[in-house]
Amino acid sequence: MSLTTLTPADLYAEIADLARDQGINSKEQWDELVDDVVEDHLDLGELDLEEDSEGIKDDLRGKWPVYKKETADDDKEDDLLDEEEEPARDDEGDDLFASDEDDI
């Protein structure tokens, strides 16, 4: 008896994490990663061979727009965080809020 231990949401989360780590930025790369991850889980017995693996792959390939939106949102958050971390500077590039002790 073979048990399916991974849900489509689990697979998507794993693929999205790997895609971020690998800098995946095209549909073709995404599709290749989907195929590789699903095949690896089939080989490891973590997905039921009787399941429609091509259907699973098709569903995950269709998540490309979701992944792109998530990464775009993440990039916007990172940009905002970077801006918040930058100290305010005057026209000469000096930190406006630095104390005089910093110059010693």
Task: Characterize the overall form.
Answer: elongated
Alpha-carbon distance between the two ends: 73 Å
Q: Can you give the mean pLDDT? A: 81
Q: How many beta-strand segments?
A: 0
Structural class: mainly alpha
Largest sheet: none
Radius of gyration: 22 Å
Helix content: 55-70%
In DSSP terms, counting alpha (H) and pi (I) runs of 4 or more, how many helices? 4
Low-confidence stretches: none
Oligomer: single chain
Write up what this structure looks like.
The protein has 104 residues and is mainly alpha-helical. It has one domain (8-84). Helices cover 61% and strands 0% of the residues. The longest helix is centred in the C-terminal third of the chain and has 22 residues, at 64-85. The chain is elongated, with a radius of gyration of 22 Å.
Layout of secondary structure:
Blueprint: H1 8-22, H2 27-43, H3 53-61, H4 64-85
Which features would summarize this protein structure in a list?
104 residues, mainly alpha, 61% helix, 0% strand
Quick overview of this protein structure:
The chain is mainly alpha-helical and 104 residues long.
